[in-house]
Amino acid sequence: MLKKIYFDYVYMNLTIDQSIVAYKKNEVPIGAALVYNKKIIIKGHNKTIVNNNPMDHAELLVLKKAARILTKIQLRESVLYSSLEPCPMCSHAINLFKIRKLIFGAYNIKSGAIDHGPRLLQLSNSYKNITTIGGLLEVKCEKFLKNYFKKVRRI
Amino acid sequence: MLKKIYFDYVYMNLTIDQSIVAYKKNEVPIGAALVYNKKIIIKGHNKTIVNNNPMDHAELLVLKKAARILTKIQLRESVLYSSLEPCPMCSHAINLFKIRKLIFGAYNIKSGAIDHGPRLLQLSNSYKNITTIGGLLEVKCEKFLKNYFKKVRRI
User: Fold this and answer.
1) Is B18:B40 a contact under the CB 8 Å cutoff?
2) At what angle do helices A88-96 and B88-96 cross, to 10 degrees?
3) Which residues of chain B are within 8 Å of residue A68 when distances are taken between CB atoms?
């Protein structure tokens, strides 16, 4: 059990590293990573500004690329890590891919859809076999988000 | 006013044509089209099977391509037509792109997120200036969906 939690910390730290990459590129600092069979398949970050596309959230990009790499339409045995609680769009994509476990860092009170707002993965018609864990390395995940929004407001 | 409604029928019929294209390719028959400045910018259909990606819904593909064609990150003055009530993923994408009007045909009682389920565009933090109209050419939109599911169940 301890070992399992330890792995989660390692993967979440890699996810946070991705959010720092986004921060340095002046993107909203959110990172995501997908783990399958205890191996990182893909990690990435938010690219809404560089791609001029408000849908290019870290989670969505990672899911899309993972499905291409694994050549699977469902990612049943996968774990998705995200530095921020996913929005409704990403939450439903997680549902469509039938992800086994979602682990996120910071809570998103305004736009989150896991433990806030519409709580999409708790609806009766969503995929039943998903476990969601929020708040892993929460403070570290929030740090760069807070810094980013301070910086944006200053401009 | 009459003229406006007439246009909506024309565009919805083009959208339904796209759902028929999907039907012929054994995809779930859902079509979408984006209109900007009274011109169709892009129309398309569901490609989840051919692209091996459960996220490749008609609406999401059309929004992504429209943003690329119009080189805009927001599609404020656009109208999105869909033959089926959008799911939570597509509904939030519509919200992110700040679409002005969404017109859909058939209602999706099980997985819709506009007039059913989480009703995402009615949440307090969603984009305020969107108008949604459901049920335009509803029976025609439903027809191919019903036929598709009959066909799938037979296999």
Assistant:
1) no
2) 150
3) 53
